Amino acid sequence: MHEEVFKKIADEKLSAYVVWEPILRTDDVRGARRATTILPDARVRHYWIDGQQAARLFQPVLGLRDELAWDVYLVYPAGVVWTGNRPPKPSYYMHQLHELPGDRFLNAATLAAQIRAATKSTK
Known about the structure:
This protein is α+β, with helices and mostly antiparallel strands. It has helices spanning 2-6, 29-35, 53-62, 108-119, and strands at 16-20, 44-48, 72-75, 92-95.
């Protein structure tokens, strides 16, 4: 993911927010800290939430009924603001879940193309 997206998109306007939550039994803050090395980029901000609040908040936004919204990659164009209690719907998303459409299963090259379109990056 890092190779396909962040190394190939040099646009400094690109920002990523990675939320780590205890979804699996083995997930904890120490594991999340170790996982931050997966995306070693100054444009990436990592957050730990000791619960499943974010995964539950994004469930209805993505149309999930049975699965929590985790292992999802959401793309928002510049200027989108989260107001109110529900997150805004992304302009594009990819995932690694069973309940969402197969044509949106994570593909780093496709995700990078969608991010480039959202940031209008020519790089």
